[in-house]
Structure formats: structure tokens, C-alpha cells
Specification:
Elements lengths: L18 E9 L16 E9 L4 H14 L10 H6 L3 H6 L7 E8 H5 L7 H5 L4 H16 L8 E7 L3 H14 L5 E7 L9 H17 L10 H5 L1 H6 L1 H7 L6 H8 L14 E4 L20
Parallel strand pairs: 1-4, 3-6, 4-5
Antiparallel strand pairs: 1-2, 2-3
Helix pairs in contact: 6-7, 8-12
Length: about 300
């Protein structure tokens, strides 16, 4: 694919950039459910981005190696979220995630809700012949980080995606251009996460898999779906006796707490996750407790 924004691995020099964004996905972009052969698509398709700076690349790679040490994993081996999910020393490994220097952002597509949504804007995502869904969620973090003012017009950005199919690459590149609202100078590379120069894709993969595990569990939102006040005025709900009572029912697993906090600009708060977005957008109203500002003592 000929595109001036794509650069080759041998041309990479991190010091030429202000921000580096590593991106990986979990799940698939299919919409086949209840298939008689049992080949169903995943419930969710999501992408997580881990943004850091060139001067923190070495430190973050050292943290990645510490995570692998806990899992008795050779440094040359790839860290996968599936390994973390089933490993008996995963809790010790997750503790090191707090040492990472960077910011996470995740985009979560609830595919059954997209499939059944009445809004015609979602139709092309379901048809997906041009991989629109993949292009959307792979590119959205770049847009969101601009809106959150974590990227600015003066930044030169390198976006490192894990390898994907050519048709997906095309969709991603087209959507990135549409989402470059600040006219930021950026380059793109599609790389192998096992490549020693791009191992921090493995951090994005681990974040993505953990976020997927959190949302697929779906045990937390049940306490909040009945809260109409929460949907109207979030802070009022959290400060009300009924809102606080529901909040106390939420007991995050250690791995979820650590990784979700990587999506938070406020390290003092247990729940203040502003760096997530869902498709359809209304799904996120079931998880408003993630933005709680009244429970900092439980950090």
C-alpha cells in the first residue's frame, strides 16, 4: 500500500517524535451470532491504545520485562493477554502495570447492540465490507486524545499498530485522516509485536484483553441500570444515598482496577475513567460509576 504516512520499521527513530501511540485489538469484527455450526463472532470488538513519550520507551520496556519475569516468560517471548488471564502469578504481574509511564485509551464496540440498533448510522458498520468497524475503533483513540488535549497541533506523533489485513489497513488510514481534527503531523507503522523495536504493542494487547474481560463479565453494570438519576445527572446520583449504596456493591478485581486506572487522568480517584468510549454510545450509561468522584478514599 502506497501512502506517505506509512514508514518502514528500519526508518524508525523514536526521538523524532513527541508522542508514540501503540495500538492493538481484541475480538473480531464479525456479526455472526447463534450460528448452528458454533462459529460465533465475539460479543465485543475493542481497541486499546497506550500512549507514551520517546524518553519513556526504555523504562516501559523494562516494566514489560518485569511483568514477564513474574510469569516466568522469556523476554523474547510475546506477552499476551490470554497468558495473563490464566496464569497463577498474574496478580503479581499486574502490579507492575502501575509502574508504566503512559496513558491508555480504549474504544469498545458492543456488536449485538450495534446489530440491533435502530439508528441507520450503524448499518455500514454491520455490513462491514470495507472494514468500517475496524477502521473506526482503531482510529478513534487518535481523535479522542486530541479532544482530551493530550495531543496538540505541535506534536509529531507515531502510531504503531499491530499487523492487520491490507483491507483493514486501508480503512484505518482513511479514518485516521478524517479524525485528524488538529492537523497533527503523524506517521503510521504496521508492525509485529514480537519485533524488539515494537514490544510495547504487547502492553496495548494486555490492556485491551483486560478491558475486554471487564466488560464481558458485565457483573458491575447490573447495579446501575435501574438508576435513572445517574443517567440524567451523574454527580447528583453519586452523592445521593441510593447512588453511594449502589457504588459500594462494586468490587473491582485487582487486574481490572489497575488497568482501568491507566485510563484515568486522576490518580487519586478509584473511579474516574474518562479515557473510554463505547459503540453504541448509549451503552456507556450502564457504566457511569466509572466516573465516580465521591469515593476517593477507596483508591
Amino acid at each position: 500500500m502506497s501512502d506517505s504516512r506509512i514508514i518502514k520499521a528500519k526508518q524508525i527513530e523514536y526521538s523524532n517524535y513527541d508522542k508514540i501511540v501503540f495500538v492493538d485489538a481484541s475480538g473480531d469484527d464479525g456479526f455472526i451470532f447463534d450460528d448452528e455450526s458454533g462459529h460465533d463472532s465475539s460479543k465485543l470488538f475493542l481497541v486499546s491504545a497506550f500512549m507514551t513519550t520517546p524518553n519513556n520507551i526504555e523504562h516501559n520496556n523494562s516494566v514489560l520485562n518485569s511483568i514477564k519475569d513474574e510469569l516466568n516468560l522469556d523476554y523474547s517471548k510475546e506477552l499476551k493477554s490470554t497468558t495473563l488471564k490464566r496464569h497463577r502469578f498474574a496478580p503479581q504481574a499486574y502490579n507492575h502495570f502501575s509502574d508504566l509511564r503512559g496513558i491508555a485509551f480504549s474504544q469498545i464496540a458492543f456488536k449485538k447492540k450495534i446489530l440491533n440498533h435502530s439508528d441507520t448510522r450503524y448499518y455500514e458498520l454491520v455490513e462491514n465490507e470495507k472494514k468500517q468497524l475496524s477502521g473506526l475503533i482503531h482510529s478513534f483513540p487518535f481523535y479522542a486524545l486530541q479532544k482530551l488535549q493530550l495531543l496538540n497541533p505541535n506534536d509529531k506523533v507515531l502510531i504503531v499498530f499491530d499487523n492487520m489485513k491490507t483491507i483493514e489497513e486501508k480503512s484505518v488510514l482513511e479514518t485516521l485522516e478524517d479524525y485528524n481534527t488538529l492537523d497533527i503531523e503523524y506517521n503510521v507503522i504496521f508492525a509485529d509485536s514480537k519485533d524488539s523495536r515494537f514490544t510495547l504493542i504487547q502492553i496495548a494487547d494486555a490492556i485491551c484483553g483486560t478491558v475486554r474481560d471487564f466488560f464481558e463479565t458485565e457483573c458491575f453494570s447490573k447495579d446501575f441500570k435501574i438508576c435513572n438519576i445517574c443517567k440524567l445527572r451523574m454527580q447528583k446520583c453519586f452523592k445521593s444515598p441510593s447512588g453511594i449504596k449502589r457504588l459500594k456493591k462494586v468490587q473491582l478485581e485487582q487486574k481490572h482496577s489497575i488497568v482501568l486506572n491507566m485510563h484515568s487522568p486522576n490518580e487519586e480517584s478509584r473511579f474516574n475513567i474518562n479515557h473510554m468510549f463505547t459503540v453504541p454510545t448509549k451503552v456507556y450509561s450502564n457504566y457511569y460509576f466509572l466516573h465516580c468522584i465521591s469515593n476517593k478514599k477507596r483508591s
